[in-house]
Design goal:
4-stranded antiparallel beta sheet, alpha+beta
């Protein structure tokens, strides 16, 4: 039966049913998008420690070795002096994961014997920097750093190991 042969009453009923189905589809899509948005974000990286200035962040993900980790840096006095009382999340590379061994050889910082960063004694403004943790990366934590010489990361005690309670998620560079 074609639409022309349908009674006006039946055509009206079909139009209402199609409208309701479309509305229901929109509601389901909006809920799915909202759920997705609760776990994902777009982030701008203002730091020069990574070559990427825009990231796609997925929350609730524990990073694997080599992934970008997005985390809250904590409230160390030096961190607050440079980044404020409520600093934006940091993004670094998860060089060390649970069970990896962090060591220092002079100013070189190594993960499982591979140099990943170098220590500096002072910040660019002349504040003292304190070396970060050495030894095995604890369960639920990562050693987060960058190869940038001025990176402010796990190589210093001001940040230290980045543990699950501080981790926002993982990042994927988009620009």
């Amino acid at each position: 039966m074609t639409a022309q042969k349908l009674s006006p009453k039946l055509r009206g009923l079909l139009k209402r049913a199609a409208f309701c189905a479309g509305l229901l589809g929109c509601v389901v899509a909006a809920q799915a998008l909202s759920s997705w948005a609760d776990r994902h974000a777009f982030m701008i990286n203002a730091s020069e420690s990574l070559p990427h200035w825009a990231l796609f962040v997925e929350s609730g993900q524990f990073p694997t070795r080599g992934e970008l980790v997005v985390f809250h840096p904590g409230h160390d006095a030096l961190t607050q002096e440079y980044f404020g009382e409520k600093p934006d999340p940091f993004t670094k590379v998860a060089y060390g994961v649970p069970g990896d061994v962090i060591a220092r050889d002079g100013s070189d910082v190594t993960v499982n014997g591979k140099v990943v960063a170098r220590l500096k004694p002072l910040t660019m403004r002349g504040d003292e920097l304190h070396p970060g943790p050495v030894g095995e990366v604890p369960e639920g934590c990562v050693f987060a750093a960058t190869p940038h010489p001025d990176g402010f990361d796990s190589r210093y005690s001001h940040i230290g190991f980045v543990c699950a309670g501080s981790i926002v998620g993982t990042g994927v560079p988009v620009l």
